[in-house]
Specification:
Elements lengths: L13 E2 L2 E2 H29 L11 H14 L4 H12 L1 H20 L6 H27 L8 H30 L1 H20 L22 H4 L5 H29 L5 H9 L7 H32 L4 H26 L13 H19 L6 H22 L15 H28 L5 H23 L2 H38 L5
Antiparallel strand pairs: 1-2
Helix pairs in contact: 1-2, 1-5, 1-6, 1-7, 1-11, 2-16, 3-4, 3-5, 3-16, 4-5, 4-7, 5-15, 5-16, 6-7, 6-13, 6-15, 7-12, 9-14, 9-15, 9-16, 9-17, 11-12, 13-15, 14-15, 14-17, 15-16
The protein binds glutamine.
The site of glutamine has 5 residues, from loops.
C-alpha cells in the first residue's frame, strides 16, 4: 500500500481525500466541544437564576466575573498541558487523561444540588482537563500528515467543523435540557458525551499507529520541514527554528485582537440582542422563524451523520467498541433533537430568545467550512499573514454592521428596537473572518513548530485566547460607561476599527513574515 499519511495502514483509507484518523479526531473534539460550549451556555443562566428556579440567585455582575475567569483559565492551562505532553506523557495519553478529567468535572457540576463545593470542584477539573486535552488533540491532527502535505490547512478546517458541530449541538441541547428540564440534566448531558467521546478515542487509537504515543523528544516521526531537508549548518538550523517560533508568536498576538473583539458575542453583543433589538414575532414571522429553526437544527445533524456513516464504512469492523460508543451517542442525540423539535412544534413563539443569535456562528461555520477548505486547496490560497489580515478585517466589518444599525440609538439609551438582521450580518462576517484565521492558525502552528515543542507551541497559541477572553470580558463590562459618552454605535465601532487596524498591519508585515517562515506555505 502506498503510504501517503503517517499512522497505521487503516489510516491510509481516505474520507474526502483525508485520512480516516482525522475523522476519529473530528468526533472526539466534537464531543469535547459539545460539553464545553453546552456547559458554558447554561453557566451564567444557572448562577443568576433564583433559588426557586434551582439556581444560585447570584448577581449578574458576579456571574459574569466567574464566567470570564473560567473561560480565560481553560485557555491558560494548555500551556502546561502542552509541555507535559511534549516531555512526559505523549499526546495521546494526554488527550485520554484530559478527557477523563473533564468527564469527571462535568459529572461533578451535575451534583451541585447535593453539595455546592462539587460545583467549584467541577470547574477546577474542567480547567485542568482542558489543559491536557485541547493543545494535544490539535497537534495530533497535523501529525497525521507528512511534513510537506498541502492538505494540512484543509484538515484543520474540517477539524474546526467538528469543533463547531459540537458547539452547535451542545448549546442547543444542554441549553434546552438545562432550562426546560433542570440544570443538573444540562450539566449531566455534557458529562455523558465527554465520557463517550473519551471511550471513542481510547478504543480507536490504533489507527494512529505510532503517532503521539511517546513524547516527541523520544519518538522519531518526522513532522517539520527542517527534519526532512538536510540543513548543512547547525547555526542556520537554529535560526530557522527561532524565526518560525517568532512567527507563531506574531500570529498569536494577532489572534488576541481577533478573539478580544469576537468574544463580545457572549457579553456585549448578547446585551445588544437582548435590550436593543426588535425580537418580537407575530403572525407569519412566527411561523417562518419556527420553520427556519427546525431546518437549521436538522441540516447540521444530517451533515455530521453523513460524516459518521463515511467513517463507519472505513473503520467500523476494525474498531467496533469505539464506533459502538460513537453510534450510541448519535442515537441519543437524534432522540433528544426529535423530542425537542416535537415539543416545540405546537408552541407559539412570540419572541426570538436573545441567546439564539450566538448559535448562528457555529451554524455558519458548519455550512461554510467545506467551501474554505476547498479555497485553501486551490490556487487562490493566500499566504498566512494575508489570511490573518483578511480575517481581522472581516471581523471588523461585522462590527461595522452593528455600529451602523445602532446609529439612531441616542447615547445612554437603555433600550431600543433596531432590526435583528444587523446581528445576523455581523455573525456572518465574524464567521467568515474566523474561518480565515482560527483553523488556519492551528495549521500554521503545526507546520511551524519544532517537533519537540509542538505541544508547547499549541499552548502558546491557546494562551492568546486566555488573554483575549479576559480582556473581552473587561472591555465588555464598560458598555454602559462607554456608550453613555460616545453612543452604542461608538462602542461597537471600537471593535470594528481595532481589528481592521490590526489586519492592515498584518498586510504590511506580509513580506517579512513570509521570509521568516522559511518556505512554509
Ligand atoms: N472556537 C474555537 C474552539 O472552541 C476556537 C476558540 C479559541 O481559540 N478561542 O476551539
Amino acid at each position: 500500500m502506498e503510504r501517503i499519511f503517517n499512522g497505521s495502514d487503516l489510516n491510509q483509507k481516505t474520507i474526502f481525500d483525508h485520512p480516516s484518523g482525522l475523522f476519529v479526531l473530528f468526533f472526539t473534539e466534537m464531543w469535547e466541544r459539545f460539553s464545553y460550549y453546552g456547559m458554558r451556555a447554561i453557566l451564567v443562566l444557572f448562577l443568576t437564576s433564583s433559588i426557586m428556579n434551582e439556581g444560585w440567585g447570584w448577581e449578574r455582575q458576579d456571574a459574569l466575573e466567574l464566567f470570564a475567569a473560567y473561560t480565560s483559565l481553560v485557555y491558560l492551562t494548555p500551556l502546561l498541558g502542552g509541555i507535559l505532553a511534549d516531555k512526559l506523557l505523549g499526546y495521546r495519553n494526554a488527550v485520554v487523561l484530559g478527557a477523563l478529567i473533564m468527564a469527571l468535572g462535568h459529572g461533578s457540576l451535575a451534583l451541585e444540588g447535593i453539595e455546592q463545593n462539587f460545583f467549584y470542584l467541577g470547574l477546577g477539573l474542567l480547567v485542568i482537563g482542558n489543559g491536557l486535552f485541547k493543545p494535544n488533540i490539535s497537534s495530533i491532527v497535523g501529525q497525521l500528515y507528512k511534513a510537506d502535505d498541502p492538505r494540512k490547512d484543509g484538515a484543520y478546517t474540517i477539524f474546526y467543523m467538528g469543533i463547531n458541530a459540537g458547539a452547535f449541538l451542545g448549546i442547543l441541547l444542554c441549553g434546552y435540557l438545562g432550562e426546560k428540564v433542570g440544570w443538573h440534566y444540562g450539566f449531566g448531558l455534557a458529562g455523558i458525551f465527554m465520557f463517550f467521546g473519551m471511550l471513542q478515542f481510547y478504543f480507536a487509537q490504533g489507527i494512529f499507529g505510532s503517532i503521539g504515543v511517546k513524547p516527541t523528544n523520544k519518538s522519531n516521526t518526522s513532522n517539520s520541514k527542517e527534519d526532512t531537508v538536510k540543513v548543512s549548518a547547525d547555526a542556520n538550523h537554529k535560526k530557522i527554528e527561532r524565526d518560525r517560533i517568532f512567527v507563531i508568536v506574531i500570529f498569536s498576538i494577532a489572534t488576541i485582537f481577533f478573539w478580544w473583539a469576537f468574544e463580545q458575542a457572549g457579553g456585549s453583543m448578547t446585551i445588544f440582542a437582548n435590550d436593543y433589538t426588535d425580537r418580537q414575532l407575530s403572525g407569519n414571522s412566527a411561523v417562518i422563524f419556527n420553520t427556519i429553526n427546525t431546518v437549521i437544527t436538522i441540516v447540521p445533524m444530517v451533515v455530521i451523520t453523513y460524516v459518521l456513516i463515511k467513517l463507519f464504512q472505513n473503520i467500523f469492523q476494525s474498531y467496533f467498541i469505539s464506533n459502538f460508543f460513537l453510534g450510541l451517542s448519535f442515537v441519543i442525540i437524534w432522540g433528544i433533537v426529535i423530542y425537542m423539535l416535537n415539543a416545540e412544534i405546537g408552541q407559539e413563539t412570540s419572541e426570538i430568545p436573545a441567546s439564539w443569535f450566538s448559535v448562528l456562528n457555529s451554524l455558519f461555520i458548519i455550512l461554510l467550512a467545506p467551501v474554505f477548505s476547498k479555497i485553501w486547496a486551490s490556487k487562490y490560497n493566500p499566504s498566512g499573514p494575508i489570511k490573518f489580515g483578511i480575517g481581522l478585517i472581516l471581523l471588523g466589518v461585522g462590527y461595522l454592521f452593528i455600529a451602523y444599525g445602532s446609529l439612531g440609538i441616542p447615547a445612554g439609551a437603555q433600550t431600543a428596537s433596531v432590526s435583528v438582521m444587523w446581528l445576523v450580518y455581523a455573525y456572518l462576517f465574524h464567521t467568515l473572518g474566523e474561518l480565515c484565521l482560527s483553523p488556519v492558525g492551528l495549521s500554521y502552528v503545526s507546520k511551524l513548530a519544532p517537533e519537540r515543542l509542538i505541544g508547547l507551541m499549541f499552548g502558546i497559541w491557546l494562551l492568546s485566547s486566555a488573554i483575549a477572553n479576559y480582556l473581552a470580558g473587561k472591555t465588555g463590562s464598560y458598555i454602559d460607561a462607554i456608550s453613555s459618552e460616545i453612543g452604542l454605535n461608538g462602542f461597537f465601532a471600537i471593535f470594528a476599527l481595532v481589528p481592521i487596524g490590526a489586519g492592515l498591519i498584518m498586510f504590511l508585515l506580509n513580506g517579512k513574515i513570509k521570509r521568516m517562515m522559511h518556505g512554509i506555505k
